[in-house]
Amino acid sequence: MPFLSLPFLLFLPAFFLLYWYVLDSSLPWQNLLVLAGSYLFYAWWDWRFLFLLTGSSLLNYWLGLGLERAARRGARRALVAAGLVQGLGCLLYFKFFNALLPLGISFYTFKTLSYLLDIERGKIRAEKDWVVFFSYVAFFPCLIAGPIDRPGVLIPQLKMRRFWDERQGTDGMRRILWGLFKKVVIADNCVRLTDGIFDHYKAAPASALLFAAFMYTIQLYADFSGYSDMAIGIGSLLGFRVSPNFRHPFFSRNIAEYWRRWHITLTSWLTDYVFTPLNIYFRDYGKAGLILAILINFTAIGIWHGPKWTFAAFGFLHGCYYIPLVLRGRLSRQRGRRGQAGKAGVAGVASVAGTFLLVMLTNIIFRAPSLRDAFGYFRRMLSRSLLTAFPVTEKLQLEVTLAGIMFLFAAEWRQRDKDHPLQIDFIRPFPVRALVYYIFLGLILGFGPARFSEFIYIRF
Amino acid sequence: MERPPAKFLLKLALMALPVFAGYEMLYRLSIYPVLTASQFFDYKVLEAGRHPPGKLSLMAVGSSVTLYDLDSRVIADSLQVPYYNFGSWGMQMTDIRAVLGGLVAAYHPCAVLICASPREFMLPRTPSYADYAGTAAFIRERFPEYFYVRNFNPVHTLWLRRFRSRRPTMDAWGGASVEEMWKGVVRHDKGEQLAFPTADTEAQYAALDSVCRYLREQHIRLVFAQAPMEARYTDSERGRRELAAFQARCGSIVGAAGGNYFNYYDTTVFPDSLFADLTHLTRAGGSILTRKIVADVKATNELAAIIQSGKDRGQHGGTAVKGGQR
C-alpha cells in the first residue's frame, strides 16, 4: 500500500498501537508483527510477488547459515555465488526480460546480497532467528524504495529490545511531515508543471525546456528524499534508526560530494561491493585504473535503475564528471562533511551552482524515454527560443511550487547541521512549534495536487 | 518495554483535532469533498444529504437531459407528490445504474423517472460513480466528510470547485435550466451529427436492462421518457435509422421489465426553436415535455396510482417536497 493512501493512513496507527501497546512485552512477537505488517504492506500491491520476496528471504537465510558453518573456502564461495546468482539473476530477469517488475526488488535484493557478502567478509554473523532475518529483508518502511539498510545496521536493532523514546518518536513525526511537504507540495506540483513539457518537448520553446529540466531535478529530489524522510520517520516511530539517504545534495560543490549526499545508501553499497574491489583490482594502473573503476561503478548505478540506454548514459556521464577531480587529485572524502555544506563565498556559490547545473542537465537524459529524445531535448533547449516566454496555465501551482522550492532550500541551508529542517527544538514555546507544524499541514492539505503521483523510485 | 506515554498520543490527537474541525467547517460552508468525477452530482447529492427531501414518490435520475428537460414546477404542481431530480451532467446508463441503489435506499421512491436520449448510451462508464456507490451507505449518508480523505483533494481545489466553477442554479427540486448555462457561450455543435451506436452502446443497453430488473426487484416502477432532440442532429438516413433502432431497443428493454416507456421524439411538437442545444430543451421546451410526461403518467392509471401512493411521504405530505433551498 502506498504511503499516501487511505489504507496506509489506517494501517500505520493500527500497527503502531499493536506494536507498542499489545505486543510490547515480547520481542519475538513484536518482530513477528513487523514481519506480518511488512508482508501485508507488500501484498496490498500484488500478493503474487510475496512468493518471490519470501523465497528470496528463505534462500538467503539458508545460505547465510550455510556460510557460517562452511569451513572450506570453496564451499563458502559456492554459497556466496549461489546467493549472487539468485539475487542478481532475479533482478536481471525481471528488469530485462519481464514486463512486470516486482516492487522493491532492486532494494531488497541489495539487502540480501550485502547480508551474504558481509558474512563472507566476516563483518557480521549469520542470523539464526528467521523472523529477524525475514523482517530485515521486508522491513516495510524501507521495502519499496529504500533506504537500503545494511544488515549490520538493522539486524542488531531487530534483535534488541526497543524502548519508546519520546524525542525519537516526535522527531519521526516531524520527519514524516517534512517528507510529506516535499512530496506533496513540491514534487507533485512539479509533476504537473513538467510532464506536459517533457512529453511534448518538440513543440515547446527552449525556455520551457530549461524550466522543465530545473523543475524535474527538484521534483526528483523532493519525491525521493520525501519518501526517504517518511520511511525514516516511520522507522523512528517504531524505535528504529534507519540510515539517512540524503544530506542536502544540492549544496555540493563537486560531483563527488554530490554523490556522497545523494541516495547515500545505494552509493555506499556500490562503493563497498563494486567500486572498492574494482579499485583494488585496477590499482596497478594508477589514476587510469581509478577512473575505470569509477566509470564501471557509476554505469552500474545507472543500470540499477533499469534496462535503458538513458540510465546507462546517465550513470556513465556522472562517472565522467569525476575525471577532472581524479586528475586534479581532489577526490577527497574530507570535503563536504556534514555541516560544511557549501561554505559561503563567490567561489563556493559558483561551485554549488555548477554542480547543480551538471546534475540538472544529466537528469534530462534520466527522464527522457530514449537517448534520441534526450538529444532532441538538448538540441531544442539550446535553440534561440531560450528567451521566449511560455504560457503557464497553472499559475497558482507555479507560484506555490516556486515559493515551496525557495523555502525548501532556505530551510535546508538554515538547518544544514541537522538531520532534517523540521528539527526545531530551538523554538522553545510549544505553541510556536505547533504553529510551524500547522503551517506545513496547511500547505500540504491546501496546495497539494488533486492526485498524488506515484513515487518515482518505486518504479526501480 | 516502555510504551509511548499517553501524553504523546494525546498530543497527536490534539494536533489532529483542528484539522478535523477545519474539514468539518468546510463541509458546513458547502465546500464539499469530491465524491465522483461530476462536481454537479457531488454538489447535488451532498446538498440533498444535508437538507434531505425525505422519502420520495417520484425520483428523477439521469444525465443533463433529465436535469434540464424536466420542469420541476410542472411536476410539483400537477402530480402533488414528493419529487426530487437527481439528474446530473454526463451520466451514462452505467453510471445511473451505479448510483441508483444508493439513491433508492436513501429515498425509497415509488417510481423512478429517467429522461434520456442516445447520448446516455454512447460513452464508457465513469468508475468514480461505482467507487462512490460502493462505499458503505452509512458513510455516504451520515459521514460524507470521509470523502475528504478517501478522495483527497487540496483545499484550494475544493474552493475553486465550489466558488469558481460554472454550475446552474438548482430549483428547490434539484432541477435546472440549460439556458443559464449557455448564457454567453458560443455553440460549436451546430453541424454535429448523431454518430450512433458506439463501442460502448451495448454495455449501456445492458446497464439499462440492469436498471429495469433492479427496479422491478425493488417493486419500483420505471418511467423511461425518450427525450426529443434537434431534428438536424439526426438529419440523415443513417441517423434516422439508428435513432429508430435505439428507440425500439429501449422500448423493448423497458417494456420487458414492466416499466413504462414513453417516446417524445417528435420534431413537429419539439421544433428546433425549442432547443438550447442538440439535446437540451429550453425552459419553454422543458415545460411542454414535462406537461406531456405528466399527462401520460396520469393517463396510465396503474402508473398514476403507484406514484400517488407515495403522496403522503416526505416532510410535507400532500405537496411536492422541496429540497434544501439554495
Annotation keywords:
heterodimer; A: 460 residues; mainly alpha; 18 helices; 0% strand; globular; B: 326 residues; alpha/beta; Rossmann fold; five-stranded parallel sheet; 5 strands; 49% helix; 7% strand; disordered C terminus
Task: Pick out the low-confidence regions of chain B.
Answer: 315-326
Distance between the termini of chain A: 16 Å
Kindly report the average pLDDT value of chain A: 89
What value does the average pLDDT of chain B take? Answer: 85
N-C termini distance of chain B: 57 Å
Q: How many strand elements of chain B?
A: 5
Helix count, DSSP H or I runs of 4 or more residues of chain A: 18
The CATH superfamily title of chain B: SGNH hydrolase
Number of strands of chain A: 0
Model regions low in confidence, pLDDT < 50 over at least 5 residues of chain A: none
Q: What percentage of amino acids of chain B are in beta strands? A: 5-15%
Summarize the structure.
Chain A is mainly α and 460 residues long. Chain A has helices at residues 6-22, 27-43, 49-69, 73-97, 105-120, 130-138, 140-143, 151-159, 166-199, 206-237, 255-261, 264-281, 286-304, 309-327, 346-367, 371-381, 395-414, 430-447. Chain A is globular and about 70 Å long.
Structure write-up:
The complex is a heterodimer of chains A (460) and B (326). With 460 residues, chain A is mainly alpha-helical. Chain A has a domain at 6-164. Chain A is 69% helix and 0% strand. Chain A is built from 18 helices and no strands. Chain A has helices spanning 6-22, 27-43, 49-69, 73-97, 105-120, 130-138, 140-143, 151-159, 166-199, 206-237, 255-261, 264-281, 286-304, 309-327, 346-367, 371-381, 395-414, 430-447. Chain B is an alpha/beta fold and 326 residues long. Chain B has one domain (6-184, 195-308): 3-Layer(aba) Sandwich (Rossmann fold), CATH 3.40.50. Helices cover 49% and strands 7% of the residues of chain B. Chain B is built from 14 helices and five strands. Chain B has helices at residues 6-28, 39-50, 64-69, 72-79, 93-107, 127-134, 137-142, 146-150, 155-163, 178-182, 201-217, 237-256, 283-299, 301-308; strands spanning 58-60, 83-85, 111-116, 221-226, 260-263. Chain B has a five-stranded parallel β-sheet, sandwiched between helices. Chain B starts with 5 loop residues before the first helix and ends in an 18-residue tail after the last helix. The chains are: A mainly alpha (460), B alpha/beta (326).
